[in-house]
Amino acid sequence: MAPINKGDVLTQLSLVTYDGKVFDSSEHKDSNLLLIFFRDATCPFCNMHLKELLDDYEFFRSNHLEIVTFFASTSEEIQKYAGKMSVPFYIVPDPELEFYKMFDVRQSKMGLWKTLCKPIAVIKAMFSGFFNLKSMTKAPIIPSDFLISKGGIVDIVHHSDNYADHLSISEIKHWLSKQHT
Asked: What is the mean pLDDT of residues 110-131?
């Protein structure tokens, strides 16, 4: 399968979350969509970003943005780590990396080293309440984010180069503001 690129039309997605909710993209054609591919549920950087999304969720909801996140983890792992936050959006387990492959989410051992070269991000993770060393032993998945406009058009593709990099909340809000014009 070819990688997903800017301008592509998102195919039908039917997903089951770690807690049994169903996301069907055909039911959300009138919403913008943010797809986030995190590493695994133990990743402190991923959980920090999940918390940022949760903090701004009401803004996103009121601006018709559906958030679907993926973790390269089982439902049980998600429940134990990321699931503790009780997020109102979708968290999809994908331990076999089926959707990661579909969206060309990359793996790189250099991602860890590039992350460690960002001391401020590492220090924030250490004091975030999410820090643990388990994620360092997991697959070296590099996060990816996709912003998809109403109608399923892929508008922004962001493949990171380190574990701590995602589209920022301000970048997402800026993109959303352009969707209303």
From this structure: 64
* Residue from 115, 111, 172 nearest 146 by CA: 172
Q: How far apart are CA 125 and CA 84, in angstroms?
A: 17
Cα dihedral 84/103/166/96 (nearest 10): 40
Highest mean pLDDT among 59-63, 79-83, 86-90, 139-143: 59-63
Q: Are 134 and 42 in contact, with CB atoms under 8 Å apart?
A: yes
Mean pLDDT of 84-104: 92
Instruction: Indicate the domain borders of the chain.
Output: 14-179
Question: 14-179 falls under which CATH superfamily?
Answer: Glutaredoxin (3.40.30.10)
Model confidence over 6-21: pLDDT tens digits?
989 988 889 999 999 9
